[in-house]
Amino acid sequence: MAGFERLGLIAGGGDLPVYVAEAAQGGDRLACVIALKGFADPTRYDSPIIRGIAQLGQVVKDLRLADCDAVCFAGIVTRPDFSALKPDLKGMAFLPQALAAATRGDDALLRAIVGFFEKEGFTVIGANDIADELLVPPGLIGAVEPSPGVRADAAKALHIAGVTGAEDIGQGAVVCDGLVLAVEAQEGTDQMLARVAGLPSELRGSAINRKGVLAKRPKPDQERRIDLPVIGVSTVEGAARAGLAGIVIPAGGAMVLGREAVARAADAAGLAVWAVDMDERADVDDYRNPDREH
Question: If we measure between CA atoms, which residue out of 33, 31, 35 comes closest to residue 66?
Answer without folding.
Answer: 31
